[in-house]
Design goal:
13 strands, alpha/beta, about 30% helix, homodimer
């Protein structure tokens, strides 16, 4: 079991739908409301509540346990950043593992690179099936023969890997419930073992604005395994605070040791958020975020 | 009168307070809710409705015409970025003009530089007086003998200036109503005349996410006077989308022509957002924002 001291620090978040607005509330402090046209899908899987809404402005919205996972309008930010930043920092990436990511957004972006194999290990097959039905990019992504779908526990899956992947992408939900184990040093140790020499782990690491104590704890866990971990940021309007962080944790690799100028030139025209200026610019952290990531620095 | 074609493109925003939540809604699309403990101040001035709330999480909140202007929790982002980015890009700034900025946040930050004179021209004295009563930084800022308070129309004030200022900061409300004239090429022409050679205008320029057509129009107006204008971004959670843009428009000066390493070393310890990495990092725009700022690029 993970060292999950930070579980108690997670501000309680809850979402609700009143027939007109889907509202996500952070512990009685702040609310984000998204205007809904109709509820398209609702089910309770073995792991969580899954819903898809049609909204007035954000396209379709996926929620898990009543928390915003993605909207069609701004998912590109999260998926482009979590995928292209690590993949362009490695000379010849071939094999990628995605833990979580059942919506196939990271897989979609990863498959734009000249990889031979993308493994996506999602615990809840129902998430992928709901997304396959409702989001346009999923079926083409699933049809790519380089993608291997595994439905199972990412922690178990990683335990069996050794120097197998150039990049491991942790595309998880918040550090509560089923996903808590994906934020522990024990798990990061297994990820480090699963990486080839020179490989990179990236992970979603919450908002530095309103979750700064969680960010501090998550980076403490990562740093115990990857001492050179660095954070990068992006703007995701439908996530709490609108500012999101991700970790770049290399096995013998720092974010700016290498940058593939040939591949970025090919990728940029198809990106709506990512471009080469962000490969350095996104690592320029505001002071409050630096302090959240490493209070001792 | 300004060429205000973009007025019609401004999504209707409106705020309301139900006794528990202050909710700002963008045209039936999205809502930001801030939990309120109590309403501290409410008045209708000659120009607008002014209110100050005590909130559960964001400290005090200032609204004008029921739109969020600042909260104690995140105002540092806006004020540090709008002030330190231009001031550190000039070798020896001495005189600064702030148009708007009645909450004195930009003046507070500007006075941390070795200036001889800061003129703040706010149209609505009641904003400054309400803030003086409710926000802790205002009285010390007003007490600084280098600050000259002018209560009047910024457009008129600028018309009378010629090569008077190293930096002009446009700290305005949205481009509707009284502030619309502050987003016109005619006004920017006057600002250019008010700048000393090598001087810089900075201006708040809305969110590139949800106001991209407005951003495009504002930059078109600025570019007609300052061809080298560039945008920089920051994360303000209580503004629409959480991502805000500002313009850097130099008279014979580009953002990275100069950077004062001695002064930044003195300033950084007192900043919560700004640090030297952002002097370049904040100009690294995501692709969608680049396209909003200059669709022809």
């Amino acid at each position: 079991m993970p060292d999950s001291g930070f579980l108690m620090q997670m501000p309680e978040q809850r979402g609700s739908f009143d027939g007109e607005w889907f509202v996500e509330e952070a512990a009685g402090r702040a609310q984000l409301g998204i205007h809904v046209r109709s509820l398209l899908h609702q089910e309770t899987s073995e792991y969580q509540d899954i819903a898809v809404y049609d909204t007035s402005f954000f396209g379709k919205l996926l929620t898990l346990d009543n928390l915003v996972m993605l909207t069609e309008r701004d998912e590109f930010v999260y998926h482009e950043m979590l995928t292209h930043v690590p993949l362009l920092s490695i000379p010849e990436p071939r094999e990628v593992l995605i833990i979580g990511g059942g919506d196939c957004g990271c897989a979609r972006e990863a498959l734009r690179h000249p990889l031979t194999r993308v493994v996506q290990c999602e615990i809840d097959e129902r998430v992928t099936r709901a997304c396959e039905h409702h989001f346009s990019w999923v079926a083409p992504t699933l049809a790519d023969s380089r993608l291997e779908l595994v439905f199972g526990d990412g922690i178990r899956f990683v335990e069996d890997q050794e120097e197998s992947f150039d990049v491991v992408i942790i595309d998880s939900t918040d550090p509560v419930g089923a996903a808590a184990g994906l934020f522990s040093s024990e798990f990061y140790q297994q990820v480090a073992r699963a990486l080839k020499p020179g490989g990179v782990m990236v992970a979603q690491t919450e908002s530095p604005h309103w979750g700064s104590r969680i960010v501090t704890e998550v980076y403490r866990q990562i740093r115990s395994v990857f001492p050179g971990v660095e954070a990068f940021l992006g703007s995701v309007p439908t996530y709490p605070s609108g500012c999101w962080s991700w970790a770049y944790a290399g096995r013998d690799r720092r974010p700016h040791d290498y940058f593939d100028l040939r591949r970025v030139a090919e990728l940029e025209p198809g990106c709506r958020y990512y471009n080469r200026s962000l490969q350095t610019g996104a690592f320029a952290l505001p002071t409050f975020a630096r302090q959240a990531v490493d209070p001792s620095a």
